[in-house]
Amino acid sequence: MAAEHVGASVELNNGVKMPWLGLGVWQGKPRDGDDVVAAIRHALTIGYQCIDTAAGYENEPGVGKAIRESGLNRENVFITTKLRNSDQGYETTLAAFEESRKKLGVDYIDLYLIHWPNLDKLKETWRAFEKLYKEGLVRAIGVSNFQIRHLEPLFQTANIIPAVNQVEYHPLLTQRTLHDFCMAHNIQLEAWSPLMKGNLSADTIAELAEKYGKTPAQIVLRWDLQNRVVTIPKSVRTARIEENADIFDFQLTDEDMAKVSALNQDYRFTQYPPNY
């Protein structure tokens, strides 16, 4: 069982603890407005400890505002943000990080990710990431949307192995080979779009929801956690934020886990990373 309560954490490969469940804020509109701030504040109130944003989401100021208004100590909130592709490169990465840090209004960022792979600039971008990590401005560094073909070249020049790989992951896209590869290299897999943009109508998921007295979304999120995948469902709706966190009072059997995994079709709701 991967997690027993909303505040449970996994230990990353550098010893930093990261919550299993977080709140994603992609497409929160207005991007730094009241809905984003209210959603984050409510999530933090009910026990969430991880907020995932990105420079490209253009809502980092709202994230920072919500965390400050929550009254929680900075060390009690795990903040992830990501580098825009247009900012990849050594000096541009350092400047972009500083901009994100100022927008968030924090002294350090818990997890900083390369948002999308760019092999042409990967070496210099990662060198900047390692500098930020060594200077204590970032507690952990990682990547997003990387496939094995992107990770292997990184390993050839990196002094620090990524702590996290955040990818599209859900029952229709289990990415088993990539997941196994990351586990073998002690890289924590993290799921974005875990709820398949609301496409939760599969008969198998509906049957399990009835069996366990849960919603289809809760079945999928529980499946994520039991597969030891950090998960960041996005929402600005209070009821949905609460629903997504109510997944720690039951456990799917091995047989039911296999049923959900069998739904895999290698289907993406977004484009394939190498084509980005």
Radius of gyration, taken over Cα atoms and rounded to an integer in Å: 18 Å
CATH architecture classification name: Alpha-Beta Barrel
Which regions have little confidence, pLDDT < 50, spanning 5+ residues?
A: none
The CATH homologous superfamily corresponds to NADP-dependent oxidoreductase domain
**Helix content range:** 25-40%
What general outline do the C-alpha atoms trace?
globular
Question: Helices and strands: which structural class?
Answer: alpha/beta
Order of SSEs, N→C?
A: EEEHEHEHEHEHEHEHHEHH
Q: Count up the helices.
A: 10
CATH topology: TIM Barrel
Strand content: 15-25%
Number of extended strands: 10
Largest sheet descriptor: 8 strands, parallel
> How far is the N terminus from the C terminus?
35 Å
